[in-house]
Structures are given as structure tokens and as C-alpha cells.
Amino acid sequence: MDLMGIIVWLAVLVSLVVFILMVVKSVKSWGALHTTLLILLFLQVWSFLFFTAGVASRRNGYMRAYEILKKKVLAKEIEADAARWGDKVNPNTDDLTRYVPVTNELNRLLIERGRVWRGATLGQINAGEATLQLAMNRVGAAPVAAGGNGADAAAPAPAAGDSGLAPQTVVHAFGESTDPRGLLPTSYFGEFLVTESSNGVVKLKPTNSLTKEQQDAISSGSFASWAIYELMPLDSHSVFSAEGSKTDENAIFGRMDSNELATLLGIDPGLATAVPTGLNVKDAIKSRVLQSYLNDGGRPPEGTPPEQVYMRVEFLKDHTIEVDSQDQRIATDGGYYDVNGRSVDARLKRGEDGAKIAFKTEDKIVFDSTTADELVKQGIVKVLAPVFVRPLNDYEYAFRELRRQITLSTQDAKLIERELAEMQKSQGLADNQVRLGQDEQSKLGMDKAQYAKENEVITAEASRLNDLLVSTRSEVAGMFQQIQAMRDRIVSNQKALADAINSATATNP
Length: 509
Fold this sequence. Notes:
Layout: H1 3-26, H2 32-85, H3 99-112, E1 116-126, E2 129-133, E3 170-179, E4 182-198, E5 201-206, H4 212-220, E6 225-229, H5 258-265, H6 281-294, E7 309-315, E8 319-322, E9 324-329, E10 343-345, E11 356-359, E12 364-368, H7 369-377, E13 381-388, H8 395-507
Parallel strand pairs: 9-10
Antiparallel strand pairs: 1-2, 1-6, 2-5, 3-4, 3-6, 4-5, 7-12, 7-13, 8-11
């Protein structure tokens, strides 16, 4: 019994005691009739109060049950809403245990992907044309994901006698390998044109020349079967996450499995932990590609372009964002979002209930850098941590571009080989010229040595002759001085003799 019930029963008990006291005190002055009527009236009133108390007690019980049921209903509504939509606060989190995210993912894989024929066996390859037997009896094959998460449900196989592949249809072929989860497409064979289709047997012809890697993969015979896709599978952030992994602040798309990614990309798993150095450009490119997938949803590595850096933010106050545009397009119109990022595709709209997303204080979500900066300037959010988000790939364009680059590279390689042959020929001529020059240099060296010897002899002889010349000059100079002195004496003697003769002549005429 609750407090209200106790109070009611105490009031009834007190009134009963008061009534008895009053009856005892007034019974002497009242008559028997008055006393009897008063007692009957009190009993009626007391009975009414008794039943009223019972009704109030039962009502309180019903109200308590109502409140309990109301809380349970509200909890069930919240649970049902969460089971239907997942985490509305963080739409970037793909909770594939919820109805709407699972439905959206299934629609994305089935509708956007187009039809798929799995488990086709290769009959023969003749002049580049492959003959395949479709798996006619494999209706409702086990769903297998191209990315390994088991969400890619296989389309039902066609009925007997009708492959569903019309001639002149362009398809994409993959090689399937066995896995504990089923058959997984693990190698891209290329783009093919259906040339013939009859009773589950189709003939495929490449739309362009296949690369050497594709030719080797097809001729290797190491694949259990072929998978034929009407459209190239779409890229996704969550499709490459490890099965069963949970999203957290350091991995908003879940934990990436390096071994499975390396297998799907055909890359050595060792390139996931170390960037190759040196001139091995091919391994360096593979390493960057693998690490971009592994880092998706995590902390940005050093040197990440700004457009690939998103921000994980926390709301500082309540905020509402409109996610559905007033415009509406269908799948054939093209385009999913308007210039403000709001959904225009009818398949992506959340409807009237979800046209606006309400965020509360302390809610956390990931925005692109531009949006995050704008909300930070408005004082609505604060940045918690940067997040690396790799750009999604258009695999159909990527494979075509890869094949085009490989073709150009092959042509360039042929040109380089031809130019290299010419260079080798020129190098041979140059080497021959070098050898001739070396022989000539050797002869010139010998001549130089002989010249050095002769020069040494000539220098010694020149030095001797120079010394002889110096000594001869000294002797000649001495003799010249002697001759000069003798001439001076002769001149002096001649003058003296002439003077003597002249004197003698003068005295004896």
C-alpha cells in the first residue's frame, strides 16, 4: 500500500473513533431512533469511503502499471527506431546490424551494381574469345562480397535456357577463388562483349586488347570459376573493413584487414608496413595504394592532401542540419546531391521524419574540412581530431585508365627498346673509337717516352754546349783584351817611332 492509501485508511479509522465517541456522549440525550439512523448513516458513509479507498488503491495500481508500460513502450519505440535507422547522430557510421543501413547497403550492391552471374565455368578460349557455361543450377547462391564483408548478395541465376545475357552486352569478368566464405572475385579479367548467348552458354570477346597480366591470369587456370558483372562494382569505405570490426574514433569505417586488402589488390602484404626505397617505382606505387586503403578512416599520414583530411568534431550546442533537398531526381537523371550536399536522389532521402538531423551538445560526428571550419567559426563545434578519408575510385574508369597507361607504357617500352638498340650500336662504335684512341694513346705514350729520352739527351748536350760556349766566350774575351792591349802597345810604339823619325828628319834635312 502506498502513502495515499495509508492516509485514507487513517482518516477512515479516525472518523470511526470520533463517531463512536460522539455517539457514546450523545446517546443519553438522543432517542433510540436518532441513534440508529445516525449509525446507519455513518455506516453508509464509511462503506462509501471504504469502496472509494479501494477504487483509489486500484487506480493507483493501474497508474503505476500505466507509467511502467509507458516507459517500456517509449524504450521499445527508441529501440525500434535504432533498429530501423541505426545511429542517427553519426550517419557516417554504417551499422550493418540495423534495418535501414543494411537495406541501403543491399540496394547499393544490388541496384547500383546491376546483375551478376557467379560460378561460370570456362569451356575453352579460341582466338581470344572465351566460352563460358553459366551456373544454371545455382539459384540463390550464397551471398559473397567483392570486398569480403559478405554483404554482396548474388543475383539469382537465370532460368534454364535463358542466360539473361543478350548479345552485344558489355560486361566485366572476374576470376573467382575459393574461400571459407564462398567464391570471391579476386582478379579482374577485363571488359568483354557478349558475342553469343544460348542455353546458358555465352561467348565473350575482349572489347580491347588485354594486358599481359590479364592474359596470364586467364591462361593460368588457377581460378575456380568466373564472375560476370553487368556493371563494375562500386567503391566504398566500409566494404574493405575487416569482418566483424567495430567503428571507433581511430577507425571510423572499422579496422582494415591488411592481408585481405593485399590479396584483393594483388600486392605483397609486406608493403603495408614499409615504404620501398630506391628506384623500384612499381613497388612504391603499390605501397602507396595499399596504405591509402589501410589508413582510410584513421589518422592522416604525414603529407596527406588537404582535400582528403576530414575532421572529427564535437558539438558545443544543439544544432540542426537539413539533409534532404527540395529538388528530387530519379536514378536516370544522374547526381545524388545538390551543391550544398543535400540529397536529391529519391533513394537517398530520409523522408519527412529524417529531412533534418538534430545534433545535441557533446554529440560527435565527422565533417569535411570546409564544413568543419565553417561550424568552428560559428562556435557550433570544436575539432577533436583529423581523419584521413581516401577518395572513392571509379573502378571501371580506373581499369580502363590502367589498361590505357599499360598500353602506352608498352608502346613506350618498344620505342625505348628500339632507341636502346640504336644507342647500343652507337655505344659499340664509340667503344671501338675509344679502343682505337686507346691504341693511339698508347703509341703516343711510347713516342712521348722516346721524346722524353731524346729531350733529356738534347737538354744535356745543350747544357754542355752552353757551358762550352760560356767558357769559349770567356777565353775569347780574354784574348780580345790581350789583343787590345797589344794593339795599344803597338800603336804606342808606332807613335813613339814616328815621333823619333820625325825628330831625326827635322834635324837632318
